[in-house]
Amino acid sequence: VSKLKKRMSTLEGELKLVKEEVVALGGEKTKMEDFVRSSRQWPLVEERPPVCTSDELAGLDQVALIAEIYEL
Predict the structure, then answer these.
(1) Phi/psi zone of residue 29: left (φ > 0), alpha (ψ -120 to 50 degrees), beta?
(2) Residue 63 is inside which H or E element, if any?
(3) How many domains does the structure of the chain reveal?
(4) Are 58 and 51 in contact (CB under 8 A)?
(5) 49 and 36, same structural domain?
(6) Structural domain span for residue 54
(7) Which of 3, 17, 18, 44 has its CA 20 to 30 A from that of 55?
(8) What is the H or E stretch that residue 17 is in?
(9) Mean pLDDT in residue range 42-50
(10) What is the CB neighbour count within 10 angstroms for residue 61?
């Protein structure tokens, strides 16, 4: 009986951890869904004006500028 009580206690603890993880994953899912919804309203890269008007950076869109920064 003692072993069964220990096992039951262990399983209850594991169940509690799993429930907490499910809640956390639900929060992450909500964040991702919100991100996807908001990203649908972002302008396309081609529609964005140049980020900077200097000669060296003229014509670069935001994505290209970020790529240039990462190469530094």
Answers:
(1) alpha
(2) helix 62-71
(3) 2
(4) no
(5) no
(6) 45-72
(7) 44
(8) helix 2-39
(9) 61
(10) 16
